[in-house]
Write a structure and sequence with these properties.
Mean pLDDT: 96
Radius of gyration: 13 Å
Shape: globular
CATH class: Alpha Beta
CATH architecture: 2-Layer Sandwich
Strand content: 35-45%
Number of helices: 2
Low-confidence stretches: none
Strand order of the largest sheet: 2-3-1-4
Number of domains: 1
Distance between the termini: 14 Å
CATH topology: Alpha-Beta Plaits
Helix content: 10-25%
Largest sheet: 4 strands, antiparallel
Order of helices and strands: EHEEHE
Length: 92
C-alpha cells in the first residue's frame, strides 16, 4: 500500500465552507477513485490541514487527483502546497 499525503493551506475565514465542500463533494468523489483503501483529513493547525489517502498500490497513488495537485484548490480557500507519495510500512 502507498499513501498520498497532501499538505495544504486554508484561509481561516473560509474554513467552514471548505469543510462543507469536503463532506459533500470531496469525500464522495475520493471514494470512487480506483484503488482507494482509506482516507483521512486532519484539522488545520496554524491554517495548514493535512490529508492522507491510502491506495492499494504505488501506481494508484501516483495517478493525479483532480484539483488536488500543488497550486490547485480542492475547496474554497484551500490551496495544496505539496504532495508526497510514501509506502505504508505498518498499520494496526
Amino acid at each position: 500500500m502507498h499513501a498520498r499525503i497532501a499538505y495544504s493551506v486554508v484561509d481561516p475565514g473560509q474554513y467552514e465552507t471548505a469543510r462543507k465542500v469536503l463532506e459533500t463533494e470531496i469525500l464522495p468523489r475520493v471514494r470512487q477513485i480506483p484503488g482507494v483503501v482509506a482516507g483521512y483529513w486532519l484539522e488545520p493547525i496554524d491554517g495548514k490541514p493535512i490529508s492522507m489517502v491510502v491506495f492499494e498500490s504505488k501506481e494508484a497513488a501516483e495517478v493525479p487527483v483532480p484539483n488536488a495537485q500543488p497550486g490547485e484548490s480542492p475547496a474554497p480557500g484551500v490551496t495544496v502546497e505539496r504532495v508526497e507519495i510514501r509506502e505504508v510500512i505498518g498499520q494496526i
